[in-house]
Design brief:
Helix content is 75%, strand content 7%. It is mainly alpha-helical. Among the domains are: 150 residues, Helix Hairpins (Orthogonal Bundle), CATH 1.10.287; 118 residues; 80 residues, P-loop containing nucleotide triphosphate hydrolases (Rossmann fold, 3-Layer(aba) Sandwich). The radius of gyration is 66 Å and the shape is rod-shaped.
Amino acid sequence: MRIDALGLARDDAHRASQTALTHGKGLATRIKELERTVAAIRSAAQKPECPTCHRPLPIAEAEIAIAPLTSQITDYMEQQQRSEAERRTAQEQITAADAELEQERARLLEIQGLEASLNSGTEYVRDATEDLQRREDDCRLLRTALGSRTDPTLQDARDAAHLAEVTRSLANQQDTVAHLRDQLSQSALEHETAQRQIAELGDVFYDPLEHERAKRAHGEIREAIARLKQIEQDLTNRQRYDQQRETAAAAAEAGSRQLEAARGQRATIGFDPVQLEAAIAAEREASAEARNADRAATTARHAAEAAVRERETLIEHHQRIEAIARRADRRQREHDELDRMYREFGRFDQHVAQLVTPQLADYAGELLAEVTDRTYDHVVFDENYGLRIFDGPEHFSIDQFSGGERDVAALCARLALSRFIGSQAAHPPRFLVLDEVFGSLDADRRAHVLAALLQLAGSDGPFRQLFIISHVDDVRISPALDEVWRVHEVDGSSKVENISRGLSVEDL
């Protein structure tokens, strides 16, 4: 059914619109996150040093880092525009589907009205056909009564009507004919009397008045004679008229009998006009109830279709919720497993700390004593590997010391850790790389640190090579270094140059 197809198409367009809207919101969130990241990088480029590595972030490097993020933002914006276009297209499809649905529903109602009209027309045609059949039966009965083998034509009907009219006219003129006969007899008597009187009069003298009276009487007599002739002519045709009247009377009598028979049949079948009116009213009421039932059925069908769609939506939501629940269970199991691993690793860390921290503290204490002229010669690590330094019989957290002392202690701890890791490896790296570790130290402490590093890199030390990256001048000219390499920019490219240790600071 087209309405069902349009409903499914509208649901598909609605789901596409919601998907595009959700995708667009997700892209908007990602764009905001990337824009915050770009803003943070640009803000860091404007600061004197990076908050992570404590080095200045050049604008060029910041732009290099920002470029892929900007490209990704542009790509997300294009995807967002496509999603918005898809959402608008889906909304237009929804609007078009709603319009078509309204048209189809109106067309369906019109068709249902036509069906009801057709049903009513069919009943009317059936009743008219039955009435026509009854009339044809009556005509056959009347034709049989008249002795006719064929159906009367229109001209026959007209002739019969004219004959009936003439017969009625003759019947109406019978009294007039009798009266005229009486007048004729009276006129004949008067004429004979007048003749006798004329004979008796003998010589007649002219009298104008009497002449006028005689003319009038003569005219009346002529008119009476003409009427008598017409009456005689009519009387001559009376036999034919009587035959026609008898035929018409027979037809009328047959019609009366047919009417009586029809009335008898109507009485037999129990025809009652009141019951007929009641039946017609009941039929109309039943038709109205049928139309209401059809509308109710249509409404129920639409409600059922809506319920089916809602059920499908609920099933889809239920399936999605079940999938989410399964993922949640899986994530919960993973969380429990990770939590167990975290606890195990925590216990392992505690175990390792109990085994490692004493030796690590010894290494760090030796280096710290060397660097600080034995001002501090003993340290310990807590359970979180936090460094605590002894000052006499008491130990304090590293946060309670000055910035330079904290940097020295942290460097010693890192060197101790490197030494410990190297000593535990089957094939130790035998080299150590230090990147900008002298920037926060004064000259004396830099000298002590270099001396300690020289011991670590000695023949008996754990390391054979030291790589120091530094911008501090007195570190670059230290006699503890075998070679000095300089990296500088030449014509837009980096150049590495091995320079002599004997050069002055100005030359370096």
